[in-house]
Structure formats: structure tokens, C-alpha cells
From TrEMBL:
Organism for this UniProt entry: Enterococcus raffinosus ATCC 49464
Pathway noted in the entry: Cofactor biosynthesis; adenosylcobalamin biosynthesis; cob(II)yrinate a,c-diamide from sirohydrochlorin (anaerobic route): step 6/10
Signal peptide: none
Record's protein name: Cobalt-precorrin-5B C(1)-methyltransferase
Coiled coil: none
Top-tier EC class: transferase
UniProt entry tagged with the keyword Cell membrane: no
Sequence similarity: Belongs to the CbiD family.
Highest taxon in the source lineage: Bacteria
HAMAP family, alphabetized: CbiD
Gene label: cbiD
InterPro entries: CbiD (IPR002748), CbiD_sf (IPR036074)
Any one Pfam family match given in the protein's UniProt record, by short name: CbiD
């Protein structure tokens, strides 16, 4: 396995998932309990059959079994779980079954729509299979064991993850489809959003509110008083999420976002991270020019670093009508992205500013509040 990946010209170190950590800890505990062998590092097999070595932080003998700990190493990826302890306690079982369960700091599923039933510990299927396969190789097929995965800091760290949105309460999830964390990979993030959308669809929702981030979500909840259960954060992946909306056959979408994000969509930019595209000033200038704004003011807009700063000039010059034009273009571009496949969800848009509040909406705010409350 390659230990590094190159991203934007930088050499970044790969890491391993919470699932790989739990597998290594379970293996170390099983070796000590059943064979009286203590290892400083454990070789585990990934789902693709490659093997990696993971350091063991510590092993502790307990009255009824053995505990082992691994420090989660996400490599150079930004990860809330990076550096936390993942522990596994292995005890003997009176049958020949392997029982895998979650202990302190491991979340519990509280809503339908995930791969796991309500009430089950949030240990996904791939990590479960990795743990079972690894422990079986150590103890054989005729002996049983109870394997309890836990995380001492899990409940607190889970507040920094998407678990709450997914209906997972009380701790972190044990995740990983490959066993490896690839730095700056967007795929895991996109998969989490897809999972949230699939969960809402399975719960009977046919409409969803999309927000680019925390600002949009806060505005939707605090100012518009919209229904929190319908809100999904799409981050910068506007195009990806809209296509997922279509794949899952949602009927209606309400996009609520800061002008600085959604203005990019009005120009057909569906990946809104600044590293991909940052044409906010240019898009504003083009639309204001079509409304007749004088060149001197257009030049001032072009020099603005934020849409908030540009808003001061727009307000003083009396060109606030530009916001309604941009909102309509966001709607048109978004619906246009999906027009070649069925079904075609209806899309409405609300634009806001941190300083000025709601700037424009493609339908009356009162109607939207009533419809989406």
C-alpha cells in the first residue's frame, strides 16, 4: 500500500480508519487473552486483501478478559477522530460465536434508514467483517469471544462529526470501507451526505432543504424557522448533491444559502469551493452592468473581497434588484442541471447576507415558511 498521496502538489501521508483501529486493537487483545502474546504492532488485512501494520498503544489485563488500545492516526487528513484512543475489550464466550458490540463512546443508531437497525451500536458492516476475520484467524473457528469496541472520548468527539444528522447518538461511529484514510479525499464526505439523503428518503421525506454550510443552516432555523428534520448540509458539492436528489427521486428542494456561495451556482459553477472557482465579484459585476450600474461603481464592486462588502455599494447605489435576478438564475441553473433525466424536482432558492438578512427568494418568504415549516 502506498503510504502517501499527492494533492495540489503536496505530498500527504495516508492514515487508517476507526474500523482499522478497532480491528488492530481486537487482534492485540485476542492474542494476549488466548495465546499470552503481547505485540507492539499488529498486521491487519484490509478489505482489498492488502496488509498494513498498526501500532498498539497499550494492553491491559482485566478480570474477565483483556483490553487493547490504538491511537487513531488519520495521516495528514483533517479528522475529528485523529489522535483519539480506540479501545477493544475481548472476553471469552461460552459458545463458539463471535459477538461484536459497542461500549462507552460508541454511538447508537436512533433512526431508521441506516444499514444498521435502531438500537444497534454504530459499527458498520465492513469494520465488523474486518474484526471478525482477524480475530477468527487468531482464536480459530471453534472458540467464541465477546468483542466490545469503545472510545473513552467518543461522546465528546462525536459532537464534531455528522453523527447527529445521521441519527447516531452518544458517541462516534466505527467506519471505513477501505480501512485507509486518504488525505483531502472528498469521497467520504460525499458518501456521508448521500447516506443522510437516503435515510431521509427511507423515512418518507419527498422534499429536502439544502444548505451550503453552518451559516445557511442557522439562517434557515433561526430566521426562517424551517423544519430542522428536512435540512441537509451539501457543503460545496452542489452539483453532486442535486444529482443525488434526482437519483433518490425527491420531489422538491429548497436551497438556502449565503450570497457568497450560491452566487457561483447562478453562473453554472456547481463545485463552490474557492479552490475550484471564485468568480463572485465577476458575476456580480456582470449582473449589475446589465442593470445599468455606472462603470465607476462596477470597478469598486470588482475590488471587493467579499459579497458583504459589495453589498454596501449595491445598497448605496440602489441596485438591490440584482439579488432577485441572481436567485432566479440559481434556480434556473440548478433545474437545468437536472433537466435531461427524470424525475425533475422543483427547486426554490433563498439568498441571504450576514449583515442584511434575506436578500431575495424565488417564491414569497411567507409561502416558503408555510410550505417548509
Amino acid at each position: 500500500m502506498g503510504e502517501f498521496v499527492f494533492y495540489n502538489g503536496k505530498k500527504l501521508r495516508k492514515g487508517y480508519t476507526t474500523g482499522s483501529c478497532a480491528t488492530a486493537a481486537a487482534s492485540a487483545a485476542a492474542y494476549f487473552l488466548f495465546h499470552d502474546k503481547a505485540y507492539e504492532e499488529i498486521k491487519i488485512e484490509l478489505p482489498n486483501k492488502e496488509k498494513i501494520m498498526i501500532p498498539i498503544h497499550s494492553i491491559e489485563v482485566k478480570k474477565d478478559g483483556c483490553q487493547a488500545f490504538v491511537v487513531k492516526d488519520g495521516g495528514d487528513d483533517v479528522d475529528a477522530t485523529d489522535g483519539m484512543l480506540i479501545g477493544v475489550e475481548v472476553t471469552r464466550n461460552t459458545t463458539n460465536q463471535l459477538i461484536i458490540e459497542g461500549g462507552v463512546g460508541i454511538g447508537r443508531v436512533t433512526e431508521i434508514g441506516l444499514q444498521l437497525p435502531v438500537g444497534e451500536a454504530a459499527i458498520n458492516s465492513v469494520p465488523r467483517k474486518m474484526i471478525e476475520r482477524s480475530v477468527r484467524k487468531i482464536i480459530g473457528s471453534n472458540i467464541g469471544a465477546r468483542i466490545t469496541v469503545f472510545a473513552p472520548e467518543g461522546e465528546e468527539i462525536a459532537k464534531q462529526t455528522m453523527n447527529r444528522r445521521l441519527g447516531i447518538q452518544g458517541g462516534i461511529s466505527i467506519l471505513g470501507t477501505t480501512g485507509i484514510v486518504t488525505p483531502m479525499s472528498e469521497e467520504g464526505w460525499k458518501q456521508s451526505i448521500s447516506l443522510e439523503l437516503e435515510m431521509k428518503k427511507s423515512q418518507g421525506y419527498n422534499s429536502v432543504i439544502l444548505c451550503p454550510g453552518n451559516y445557511g443552516e442557522t439562517f434557515a432555523l433561526k430566521t426562517l424557522k424551517l423544519n430542522e428534520t428536512r435540512i441537509v448540509s451539501m457543503s460545496n458539492f452542489v452539483g453532486y448533491v442535486l444529482k443525488e436528489i434526482q437519483r433518490l427521486k425527491f420531489e422538491k428542494v429548497l436551497m438556502v444559502g449565503h450570497l457568497g456561495k450560491l452566487i457561483k451556482v447562478s453562473a453554472g459553477i456547481f463545485s463552490t469551493h474557492s479552490r475550484d472557482a471564485d468568480a463572485r465579484a465577476e458575476i456580480l459585476v456582470a449582473n449589475l452592468a446589465l442593470l445599468g450600474m455606472p462603470v465607476t461603481q462596477l470597478q469598486q464592486i470588482e475590488q471587493c473581497l467579499t459579497t458583504e462588502a459589495a453589498g454596501e455599494i449595491i445598497a448605496q447605489a440602489g441596485y438591490e434588484a440584482v439579488y432577485q435576478i441572481i436567485a432566479q438564475k440559481v434556480k434556473k441553473r440548478s433545474e437545468g442541471l437536472l433537466k435531461y433525466r427524470k424525475p425533475e424536482p422543483s427547486i426554490e432558492v433563498v439568498l441571504f447576507s450576514s449583515q442584511r438578512g434575506c436578500l431575495a427568494s424565488t417564491k414569497s418568504l411567507e409561502l416558503l415558511k408555510e410550505e417548509w415549516k
